[in-house]
Amino acid sequence: MTLPFSYNARNVVVRWRSSAATVLIIALVVAVCLILQAMAQGIVSSTSATGDPANVIIVRKGSTAESSSIVTRTQARRIQFLPQVQRDERGDPISSAEVVVLANLRRRGGAGEANVSLRGISPAGRALRPQVRLAEGRWFVPGKREVVVSRRLAPRFEGLGLNERFKSGAHSLAVVGIFDAVGTAFESEIWLDANEARSLFDREQFSSVIVRVPSPADQQAMKKSLESDKQLRLLALPEPEYYAKLTKSAGPIRFLGYFLAATLSVGAVFAAMNAMYAIVGRRTREVGTLRILGYPRRIIMLGFLMEGGLLALAGGALGCALAAPFNWVTTSTISFDSFSEIVFKFHITPWLIIQALAFSFAIGVAGSFLPALRVSRLPVIAAVKAV
Amino acid sequence: MNLGAFILKNALRNTRRALLCVLSVAACLFLFVSLLVCLRELTVPPEDIGASLRIAVRNKVSLTVQLPARQGPIIARVPGVAAVTPFSWFGGQFGTEEGTPFAQFAVDPAKFAAMFPDMRLPADQLANWIATRTGCIVGRDLAEKKNFKIGSRITLRGSVWPCDLELIVSGIYDYEIDSTSLFFDHKYLDEATGNTGTVGAWWVLAENAEAVPGIIDRINAAFANTSAEVRAETENAFRMSFVSMLGDIATLIGAICTVVVFTLGIVTASTMSMAVRERFPELAILKAMGFRTRELWAFILAESFLLAALGAVLGIGFAIAFYRSPPVVSAMSIYFPVFEISPRIMARAAIVAAGLGIVASLAPAIQVARLTVVDGLRTLD
Hints:
The structure holds two protein chains of two kinds.
Chain A: H1 5-14, H2 16-48, E1 55-60, H3 73-80, E2 95-106, E3 113-121, H4 125-128, E4 133-137, E5 146-150, E6 165-168, E7 171-180, E8 189-193, H5 194-200, E9 208-212, H6 216-227, E10 234-238, H7 239-244, H8 250-282, H9 284-292, H10 297-323, E11 330-334, E12 341-345, H11 350-377, H12 380-385
Parallel strand pairs in A: 3-8, 5-7
Antiparallel strand pairs in A: 1-9, 1-10, 2-3, 2-9, 4-7, 5-8, 6-7, 11-12
Chain B: H1 3-12, H2 15-43, E1 54-59, E2 67-68, H3 71-76, E3 81-86, E4 88-89, E5 93-94, E6 104-107, H4 109-115, H5 123-131, E7 135-139, H6 140-146, E8 153-157, E9 164-173, E10 182-185, H7 186-193, E11 198-199, E12 202-206, H8 212-222, E13 230-234, H9 235-245, H10 249-277, H11 280-288, H12 293-324, H13 326-332, H14 343-370, H15 373-378
Parallel strand pairs in B: 6-10, 7-9
Antiparallel strand pairs in B: 1-12, 1-13, 2-11, 3-12, 4-6, 5-8, 7-10, 8-9
Helix pairs in contact in B: 1-12, 2-10, 2-12, 2-14, 10-12, 10-14, 12-14
């Protein structure tokens, strides 16, 4: 003989006043933890959405970021003319030797500064990244000290808006276009011409080379031929694979999220326990009656566990609703991989929501365990006589 | 029975509820204290006395762009400069660990002792370091964590610099603000890269604090319109520039602190209103006996204050014990070399707890004030 589910469900609804505080506490806890996880997920999502599987990126072996990688000009030329690299209609290899320099720029509306990635690209660099599209203005003309800026970066730093100018070192650069790089790591970048970047920032060598190698078999062959030459000390990776690893900054944020979840859930369990003791205390007679009607102890206990879980689940759902608007918010922090500013959106995935709801349900069940045990163990007569 | 005993008895008559509330408050305050320390470590870099005399010089483009080594002698000739050393971040990988497990800098060992007077390194170890081209010194905490001893060999694989280094530990230093770094001779780095021409940054020591602004202006001017313009700033300003790079993290942690405090408020307030509601009949009797609303509020206030205070003692006390325990200290040292709960932070947590006690007593106090004796006596639980 089981208690109908609606008995407990209706109890949560009818007596909502007495448990509103608990629901609110759980909602806040869940919202805070979810927002932190969504931030970490945002970093992961932006890097994992970057790159084209048909592209191979070549960097110096051992370098952790493009900005600290060195590919000499001789090496770059050799890579471009490898047989696996696809050619365009004119017979030129589709490849881009690039330079990544970090420039310290001033944030808008404050005294702070941060490092921003400037990427110098070769003419084929745009064709290699179809994800990046011009949104406003025009593309830069090499040699005229012009740059294009990501739409997300432009409002965050001084002088990065369309038709504005900014200084880096001794040079003044003009922003002639704004590009859209929907949800990828390129959203944190400024693009200009590679050779111009080399001369502006006094760089003899390139940072990386990106080549179009559509077939996975060719990619493997190319990787082998480059990496077997120990003199070169180069690393070749499919572009998505390279970017997917740049998630070091997500680690501490995720850790902070877990730490918060652990400590706050302790507080929330105690608070929920308090509320559940009060709830079961008020219903002692009701429980006695149920026992007389023939409901066994463990069914009653189960019922109260469900009730605590449902209550907390309501809190969890409220928490998710509170956190939901963050899904459209853009934020920024430093990348521990490249030491530059990364701009990304909080990303609340369905999986994170499921985790959040499961977490809240667990808080509720944990908090109602002892109260449920107590009330189900009361002797029937004492329970019925209780005031 | 005096008043104190009356309040205490009241607070503890539902021991379980009082205990749960105290524990809940303690957990939240523990978190609050942790976040505050975290925020302070991120936004207020540690300072020592010598810092006011030190100037950091980096490439104007950004710290990651190298400077030409020829700048060194030019900076050394600027009036008021006592010493100059290169200061290059090596960022090597160690052992099988991913990324850079500890900071490594290439410096000039001969200038080092003068540059960081608060750093304690035995004279013989310093002499040994200066004499050994491949020598390095490591911080006490790092040495203990990685089991480095004098004479240990350390292999670092370069990630920023295209070379690997084979270092020998010449000395172990003690330094309050940073005891987890490794310093080695810049000449060895030049040798390993085969490039004597570049450094990451310069560290400059001024003869006295008054000379600092003048030196900064002169250094900036000395390299203006060259291919490597520099930005000279005090060491503290340099450290502060990292705070801004963290972006929205600091704001986020601050916002979380606020939410935690708000949650704490709800926890205590709901406990207090539960406690007071079940006591309506007695409070009505007290009213009938002639106690005024003001006095009844004082009872409630004292009780909620007591709960909050117990929670604060437990939460802050646990935080202090937790963050001092050796396993936690060594686990935290990667991100936070110093994770100390300062008196100021304790005071802030205590103030929050006190505020909590007051806020939590307000709603029940209003209920009691509105309560008429007859209604109160009629209340059934």
